Fold:
Amino acid sequence: MNKNIRRILLLLTIPFVGLLLKELLLFVGLNEDIIIYDFISKILIRCVLAIIVLYLIIKWGYGTFLKQFKNILISGLILLPIVYFSFQHVQYEIDNAELTIGFVENILYFTSTFATGLYEELLFRILGFSLIFNYFKNKKENLFKSVILTSLLFGIAHFINLFKITSFTIIIQVLIAMGFGLLLQSLLLRFKNIFIVIIIHTLINYLGMYRYYLGFPASINEVDDSSGFIGSLIWTIIILVCFVIPLSYLILKPVIRNR
Structure:
């Protein structure tokens, strides 16, 4: 079996290591039913996984992206205010909904989304992409193909959420993950700044899931999600085909041309 194939298969086992770590934390008494402990366990698990992935990146010689921080000052000046106002928005929503949680839980939730963004960007955008691109012998005509395959891998990996999501909405989540993976990979290759994609990934998770993770009351649409599944699926596919894929290609086009 090709060495890169073996490494890709090893990469696919890493998310399941997270499930084992979760069971271990439950065994030692870190009860995920308590929201603070749930966030703490997520932070600990993602940090351990990020360290494992970082070790493999360095060991296998794919650390180039880790050394690329172009336009760090400009990206920081743009993204950090967005992070601040995003946090303030979620805190306002918490206060307005008069939830029993507060500032500390919001901080821990944001930290858990950052840890997830860090781990998944290292795993897929750097290690996964590098393995797939190297499999194709680093030829520039295979660059976009490698981006597509890495994004498919990223989306498929979200089927691991079947352990907590039992409805057909998991399909939409997987497709959305593929789309975001495609854009984030394109941004990383174009701007060569891992900091940018980690923060964007963090904000996507933070703003997209705070109502679910922070215990906001479910709306009628969220309770009866099966009725609108087909419509949501069609719109997701249309957005991917008509917007996400063309935009990603436009972002990547200068990279492909200059290689």
User: Anything to note?
Assistant: The CA atoms of residues 184 and 200 lie 8 Å apart. The chain has a mean pLDDT of 86. The radius of gyration is 19 Å.
